[in-house]
Amino acid sequence: MHQYFANNKVNNKIIFSKEDYNHIKNVMRYKPKDMVYAAYDNVRYICEFSPLLDTADIISIDEIKKSKRIINAYIPLLEENKMSFVLQKACELGVTNITVVMFSHGKYKLDNTSINKKLKRWNEILRNASMQSQRLDIPSLLGCINIDKINKVTGVNILCSLDKSSVKPLNTVLTNKNIYDIVNIVYGPEGGISKDEEDFLVKQNFIKTSLSSSVLRTETVLIYLMSVINYLEEL
After folding, report:
1. Which of 95, 126, 211, 214 is the most exposed place for a label (fewest CB within 10 A)?
2. Nearest-CA neighbor of 222 among 128, 118, 95?
3. What count of other Cβ atoms lies within 10 Å of the Cβ of residue 234?
């Protein structure tokens, strides 16, 4: 069954937004009494569409558990296709919060006007990807910032580094004992993270971490890390 995020819930009835109603009626071409998932307030319901399709009646609660872990990803600003890909995979693999970061070696920079337009577009991507992957929630997009706005954080703080010295292997930084802590991930754009930026992040309690003997593409890093985290959680 397809899933939508409910706009509201009143008693035993789910109410959809105008945008979702249009998708339900004109794109998916659902009929009254068709079944659908509706997520609201971190609960997923099994529902039946009403005659007008703008609401659905709750039949039962779909008993699934929401992970208690918190994954904060600081992702680099990339060109649009790669940004869409990274955001979609972040949703599918369970990232909690996303902050877009402009690094000195990055190809792209945004002014305040452009940032607002991009944030709107990226939130749409996150919402659609969350529906597709049937998450109970949508990752929070916390803004687009310069690297010096990253504050000291607590938790398991992973700085994905290509530095050959003073770097720790991933299996010593991230273990099956600490994946339930807050995990904070920072990685750079195609041009990498400068030494000054790495030094700054180390002062913010991030640990320079090696992911692999090979150099991963920027759009692969988060997939790699989240796959490891999901595997460790299953253990």
Report:
1. 214
2. 95
3. 7
Place of tokens 């504050």: 151
Is the dihedral angle over the CA atoms 69, 74, 80, 86 positive or is it negative? negative
Tokens matching residue 61: 């609660």
Report the DSSP beta bridge partners of residue 102.
Answer: 146
In this structure, what token pair is assigned to residue 109?
């920079």
**What is the per-residue pLDDT across 127-159, written as a single tens digit (0 to 9) for each?**
999 999 999 999 999 999 999 999 988 899 999
3-state percent helix, strand, coil for the chain, nearest multiple of 5: 35, 30, 40
Position 52, amino acid = L
C-alpha dihedral over 12, 17, 23, 28, to 10 degrees? 0
How far is CA 89 from each of CA 29, 52, 217, 228, rounded to the nearest angstrom?
A: 27, 34, 14, 14
Question: Model's pTM, two decimal places?
Answer: 0.90
Q: Which residue has the tokens 């990498």?
A: 192
Q: How far apart are CA 126 and CA 100, in angstroms?
A: 13
Whose CA is closest to 159, among 189, 127, 188, 123?
188
